[in-house]
Design brief:
269 residues; alpha/beta; flat
Length: 269
């Protein structure tokens, strides 16, 4: 399945008579995530990296911590069944599905829409105490690096992105999705599948705003520095402060705001 589809449109410039052409639009389809055959979530997502999406979702929900806990991830081949994916735990491993705080359906626009209450999503991941540091000039270069890696966004202008960078600015992984929280789950799922978690010396950058859930997902992956090109929410700021995470907003050419734990950012004199 493709992330992008061409769709016929009538395009007008300056209000003049439109001409028939095509436009690239983002694909949005439901994905049902199951664990050992039990349905745990249906999320609206952009097809692609679905296995990473499912694994990252379960990591951020606190159900998975070790790659060895998963025997395999099975996706039905082709057709409508391709939108159904089953995460199968390793023999003897039982995942505490009763810990899931998300209702069965969530939209692509808001990962918290299916939560029963804020307190229910405050999983008890340990706070981060690492003293890792990043140069402010490295941070300022990240948005351009992210934009260069957003291949589907370049065609459609309709996708969110999440990227993990090492603190020296090296791009580790980037994922795109119609849902911002899905993009974060995909990149975390990549780290989980590769056995890289926790990402103690890394940073998460998101292309939009920084919500509470995005900061929480970063904490689940052990990421000490979270940055966004747009604004953070008040709940994201308070959660990052309590969790020992450095939260950066409005990361744009020549400027940034550090909202919490600024000790991790080195500034020029």
């Amino acid at each position: 399945m493709s992330e992008v589809a061409d769709h016929p449109v009538w395009r007008s410039d300056d209000g003049r008579r439109p001409a028939a052409t095509t436009d690239a639009v983002v694909v949005e389809e439901p994905l049902e995530i199951r664990v050992a055959g039990t349905a745990v979530s249906v999320t609206m997502r952009t097809p692609g990296h679905d296995r990473e999406l499912a694994l990252g979702f379960l990591v951020s929900e606190g159900l998975l911590a070790e790659r060895a806990d998963v025997e395999c991830v099975v996706q039905s081949p082709g057709g409508p069944g391709a939108n159904l994916l089953d995460v199968r735990p390793a023999p003897g491993v039982r995942l505490a599905l009763d810990r899931l705080t998300r209702h069965v359906f969530t939209s692509s626009s808001c990962g918290l829409c299916g939560k029963t209450a804020i307190e229910a999503v405050r999983h008890h991941f340990p706070p981060i105490a690492d003293d890792v540091e990043v140069d402010a000039r490295t941070l300022l270069a990240l948005p351009a690096a992210l934009a260069a890696a957003q291949t589907a966004f370049a065609r459609t202008g309709g996708l969110h992105a999440a990227a993990v960078f090492a603190v020296d600015g090296t791009l580790v992984a980037v994922r795109e999705d119609v849902g911002r929280h899905n993009a974060v789950d995909k990149v975390i799922g990549h780290g989980f599948a590769e056995g890289c978690l926790p990402w103690r010396r890394h940073m998460l950058l998101v292309s939009g705003r920084a919500s509470f859930e995005i900061v929480q997902k970063a904490l689940a992956a052990g990421i000490p520095i979270v940055a966004a090109v747009s604004a953070p929410s008040s709940l994201a700021v308070s959660f990052a402060d309590e969790s020992g995470q450095t939260l950066i907003g409005f990361l744009r050419p020549g400027r940034l705001n550090v909202y919490t734990h600024h000790r991790r950012v080195r500034f020029a004199d």
